[in-house]
Q: What sequence folds into this?
């Protein structure tokens, strides 16, 4: 499924719940696949006693990866030309995240139709944890 | 991170997709992927971050025969504490990440990653005290030397943890 320029307009949006009650184990899975074994994400003792955080927390890149899933489900596979985010708040175990994309512009570039999107992921309390933008190639 | 050889492999893509909770067949099923625009299993948008696995010097992976700063018997495995600064531990936090996709990486590609230093700047934060930002630009090229993804990461070091304990 790929978005078609003829079927979308500025202001259209799509959202998806990308994790429900985030587990420490999923954070460990992400450490294992990404190769980022920073103990801040899996080692509660280090994180509390040495680093001074209330608990381990998710890799920003895990939240970005989960948010990316919402994006590819919306625009289609292999269609992104840009995806960038700021990590605006830390994500702790137990978080339930909802990611949303809104089309802000549809434009032509090098003979292709590109949609620009605003991206926002919020937790169960409405706190924004990711704020970003993306661009994607559309079908005609 | 500089990486001489980052092969995009199907089992790695499968495990990465699981870890971000993405059940899309294009990351798991070669037969399905053959019938799509890309013609092969592709890498999820943030997958190139996993090039850390192929960086021999990546500092956030325990190295064989070396002390690790995470907990063991005590809260840190480092016997002699090195410099104290840069609270938050673990080399700071990730503030921003940007990817420009020149094309979508897919299984069978063998990428290289070259790091170019970026800007650095300081800012006074609300929670973590003085914030020290630094940017790195990583260019991922394929087996033909063609640019595939340009990744720009911004890291931040804080004077004290950005979220305090209860």
A:
């Amino acid at each position: 499924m790929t978005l078609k320029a003829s079927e979308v307009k500025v202001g259209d949006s799509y959202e998806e719940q990308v994790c429900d009650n985030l587990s420490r184990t999923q954070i460990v899975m992400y450490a294992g696949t990404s190769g980022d074994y920073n103990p801040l994400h899996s080692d509660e003792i280090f994180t509390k006693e040495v680093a001074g955080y209330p608990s381990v927390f998710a890799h920003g890149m895990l939240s970005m990866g989960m948010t990316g899933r919402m994006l590819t489900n919306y625009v289609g596979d292999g269609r992104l030309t840009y995806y960038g985010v700021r990590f605006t708040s830390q994500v702790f175990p137990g978080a339930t995240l909802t990611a949303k994309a809104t089309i802000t512009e549809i434009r032509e570039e090098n003979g292709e139709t590109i949609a620009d999107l605003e991206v926002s992921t919020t937790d169960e309390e409405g706190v924004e944890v990711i704020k970003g933008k993306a661009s994607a190639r559309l079908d005609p | 991170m500089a990486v001489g050889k980052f092969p995009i492999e199907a089992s790695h893509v499968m495990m990465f997709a699981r870890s971000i909770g993405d059940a899309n067949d294009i990351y798991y099923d070669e037969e399905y992927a053959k019938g799509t625009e890309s013609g092969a299993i592709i890498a999820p948008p943030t997958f190139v971050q996993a090039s850390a696995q192929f960086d021999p010097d990546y500092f956030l992976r325990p190295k064989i025969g070396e002390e690790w700063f995470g907990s063991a018997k005590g809260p840190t495995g480092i016997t002699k504490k090195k410099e104290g600064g840069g609270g938050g531990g673990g080399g700071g936090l990730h503030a921003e990440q940007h990817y420009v996709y020149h094309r979508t990486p897919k299984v069978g590609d063998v990428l290289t990653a070259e790091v170019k230093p970026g800007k650095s700047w300081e800012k006074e934060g609300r929670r973590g005290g003085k914030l020290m930002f630094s940017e790195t630009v990583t260019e991922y090229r394929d087996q033909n030397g063609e640019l595939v993804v340009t990744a720009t990461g911004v890291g931040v070091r804080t004077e004290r943890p950005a979220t305090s304990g209860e």
